[in-house]
Amino acid sequence: MPARDILIIVPLFNEEGSLERLKEEMDIFMSACEHNISVLFVDDGSVDRSPEIIRDICSKDSRYAYITLDRNMGLSAALKAGIDNADSKWVAYIDSDLQTSPSDFSLLLPHINDYDLVTGYRLKRNDPIVKRFSSRLANSFRRAVLKDGVKDTGCPLKIITTATAQRLPFFNGMHRFLPALVQAAGGRVKEVPVRHFERRDGVSKYNLANRLIMPFVDTFAVLWIKKRMINYNLVRRPENIR
User: I need a labelling partner for 60 at 20 to 30 A (CA). Which of 137, 161, 210, 242 fits?
Assistant: First the structure.
């Protein structure tokens, strides 16, 4: 992959129906963007045609690359794998299902020099009513407990400084708490309204248990982390270390 300012991480698990359309929309965004951008697919153990499709995309376009996990590990693990392999100034994240648009990264970009994390919030959700209700309930509970002030922590459209991302604690489910964890690490967070679209291909990987029950439990784990996170600033740096 060429040198870049921003690496966009695209985690995926069995999303064969949306990947070629994602490539088309990502190309439109990158061609209009002044930043040097590359895309990293993280295949989270797909068992459909997704691996074949991303191999073909990457073989034809040097801006795209992929890594593959040995088994399905979940979104947080796929994000960590992508962040661990980033050498850009910023890392971005978008889901492969195209319920958010790569073009809406342009709404986040004006803020990246002033904040450690710029995240979208879905102004109008185009999801089934049960999914909208569970998300609204989980967001309200999280805001009340963590006091992070974030409307839509789970929006799958984010840009974060790589240095910040690589020092965050990672655990299963942490992707829902990126804004709170960035704040706990001393970072600044900005929310920007973005569009949200109905899923056209594939099926959601979430159910009531992993959308509602586990996030409630994880909220208290994040509260524990926030209270114990170590942050420090040096007032003097060593002149020479042997």
Answer: 161
